[in-house]
Automatic annotation (TrEMBL):
<dbReference type="Pfam" id="PF14534">
    <property type="entry name" value="DUF4440"/>
</dbReference>
<dbReference type="InterPro" id="IPR032710">
    <property type="entry name" value="NTF2-like_dom_sf"/>
</dbReference>
<dbReference type="InterPro" id="IPR011944">
    <property type="entry name" value="Steroid_delta5-4_isomerase"/>
</dbReference>
<feature type="domain" description="DUF4440">
    <location>
        <begin position="21"/>
        <end position="133"/>
    </location>
</feature>
<dbReference type="InterPro" id="IPR027843">
    <property type="entry name" value="DUF4440"/>
</dbReference>
<protein>
    <submittedName>
        <fullName>Uncharacterized protein (TIGR02246 family)</fullName>
    </submittedName>
</protein>
Amino acid sequence: MTKDFDVHNSREERQQEIDVIHQTITNMEVAFNQHDADKLDSHFTQNATWVNVFGTQLSGWEQINETHKILLAGPLSNSYALYKVESIKFVRPDVAIAHIRQYPTTSEGKVIENGQCSLAIYVMVKEQGTWQVTAGQNTFIQETPPVNS
């Protein structure tokens, strides 16, 4: 059994890191909704691994980016989402795990009731002052929870 511990020197420092991670995830949401694969993938490390909602494992920034370009220009070209951060847990000061619930929306940002939601886990690392996704998985969920849960 592992002991949970605070890896930051102060509550303010921890909150600053949480705020930066939230902003990174918001930037990813904006990029997804603009269908901009390069902008979206600028938040992945070069050696990232990603498992998408279709169960496809992608390895390395280039493969992730190539796949996102195809999906965002094709099957996902009319897809939009709201990203809601459900939790952030620090493993070390430079490693965090975030759970993000993704709600389908209209192009105007209105959540589509009873739409297909997903839950993603991002393993994020802080390199040169920037938080990036180094591994993750996005999974369709069977039951759509309310947005305000």
